[in-house]
Amino acid sequence: VTPAMKSRVSWVDKDTMLVGGDFGPDTLTKSGYPRVVREWKRGTPLLDAKTVYEGDENDVSVTGYLVRSKGFAYEKRNRGTSFYS
Known about the structure:
The chain has no helices and six strands. With 85 residues, the protein is an all-beta fold.
């Protein structure tokens, strides 16, 4: 269970999630959305999760997610730099 926050999560496998959220100072954009993506392993504290991607504080948001298609899995990272482009 994650604390209440603007967050984004994506399962990588049965024991691993990519989590973007408020992990303390400098982990949110100026818009208040995740700026840091961490890889969280089952049974470990969320705050100990390893940072795997970081955006800029001026980005709208940053996400990490897994796409599965035709037997393949692709880990993606995304920096949202504006709402409309």
